[in-house]
Amino acid sequence: MDLAVELVGITKRFGAFVANEGVDLAVRRGEIHAVIGENGAGKTTLMNVLFGLVQPDAGSIRLDGRERVIASPAEAIEAGLGMVHQHFKLVPSLTVADNVFLGMEIRRRGLIDHAEQARRTRELSERFGLKVDPDERVGLLSVGIEQRIEILKVLARGARTVILDEPTAVLTPQESRELFRILRGFSAEGMTVIFISHHLEEVMEVSDTVTVLRAGRHVATRPTAGLSREDLVRMMVGRAVNFARRPRGARPGAPVLEAKALWARDARRLPALKDVNLTVHAGEIVGIAGVAGNGQTELAEVLAGLKVPSHGEVRLGGAAIAGRSPAEIRARGLAHVPGDRLARGVDRNASITTNILMGRQNAAPWSRNGLIRWKKVAEEAETLIRRFDIRARSAASPVRSLSGGNIQKVVLAREFTQGAPFLLVDQPTRGVDIGAQEAIHDEIMAQREAGRAILLISVQLDELAALADRILVMFDGRIMGEVAGEALDEESVGLMMTGVPQAAAEGARP
């Protein structure tokens, strides 16, 4: 067997915490190899060992049949490895080409040769089907294009094996399919791809081989062909997981959140919300479906007080909140799980305990006479760590030490226990593994049954079908139509997501 990468007996400990224990991984040259497992299973740590970001406590690495000690990412790159991280590392003010060659600039007479960098970027992008404009500023581009730039950075450094950590966590379904086309092109050219994922349909669609980790140990390596989603779930979690629509109780109550004739502009001062009208009742989950970039972000920002609408009215519990500050809106009864957990959900340098305290540090029982009751806060943090199954060494661990899915659980633990009558929940399971998705869905349904009004924004139609009572479909800042959650038809909803009015979309069904 012609192996590009072989890890043998890799063990990595962080204090008393064992992230990897005797893990073996064999990846054939030219294959697409998926590594899956729950959050905390050791997937990212194993890839960090391979890329030289951390050093193993035991075990060995072989590349192309030769044993290697990879002491740093620089040595990994020299050995032909490239890694695209889950959270991108781009400079928004620079062009695409300048980002691709950042740190290895092409110079002529002592100055950066921007034209040559652009030429080589264009050449690489055309060879591998990564469509980009080398002269465009990165800060103006979509997340999907940013990921292409990260891949181009890896290719420009001569990678023969590309490692991708949760590559579709921030992509739309359309962008994910385009990424898979690119990865198949890599494989056809003899390159090797290792990717970490929790989206099992994607694993089954694009990978040749799948390795499953659980609790830091190797469980199985199998050819993907012939495996079912249920097979993968059992290997990952050790049990069956519920993907079905969740049962629900009583009919919705009184209106809690009302938006009328709502307009707002995006960062370029162009209309991003166009005459949006919606109502969310107590004990109801209203879903927002749509391809990312069609006004969902601006809608969430307006409702949370992060953006002032151009026109229109928003009422929360009967009180006008449009244009109010985020603190005022939260005080009126809003809890917010933001779509970008790192930018707006947490302080990465603070502990889990501190992050769970945020927003209620001045309220009883967490504070008394202006002083925070840290013992009480610590007890609450430990309780929520157990309830939300946050995988961490301790409540004092900084959030930056957690996986993406566990960071999401910290945000959910804080916001879902505020007691707020209205929950604004944006992409709740982005970057979260299968077992944790089920638990998060259970928590959302529990909030509904407790009478909360919930606006659920998600790019995953199956998530909306499982949870929402009603689903509003957005395109280009407008509501294109509304469907009942139990009657969701992916074909007609998909047409509405491309701008086809509801009547026409439903009439187009076979």
UniProtKB/TrEMBL annotation:
SMART domains registered for this protein in UniProt: AAA
Domain ABC transporter, first and last residues per copy: 5-240, 257-501
This protein's UniProt keywords: ATP-binding, Cell membrane, Membrane, Nucleotide-binding, Repeat, Sugar transport, Translocase, Transport
Membrane topology: Peripheral membrane protein
Annotated Gene3D superfamilies: P-loop containing nucleotide triphosphate hydrolases
Main localization (coarse): membrane
Protein known as: ABC transporter
